[in-house]
Amino acid sequence: MPLYYIKFSILDNARSDHLALFGAMTEQDDINYIGEDVKLLGRWLTIGQTAVLCICEVKNNQALSSWLLNWVNMCTIVT
What we know:
Number of helices: 3
Helix content: 25-40%
Structural class: alpha+beta
Low-confidence stretches: none
Mean pLDDT: 92
Distance between the termini: 16 Å
Radius of gyration: 12 Å
């Protein structure tokens, strides 16, 4: 499976909403958001810099796009 390094930069105007949404997610919510075709290998948050870094493997690009589209209204995403 292809390996991806992804950086999410949280938009200033969405910081509160992002923290509320992400902070309230259960482990199962997170799994549901990510989807079964994306394997999250690691995720690191830099709260002060409003950034999230992660490494994942994906079965196909559609699965990756589907997961990332959940966050486009709150983040700039670079893969």
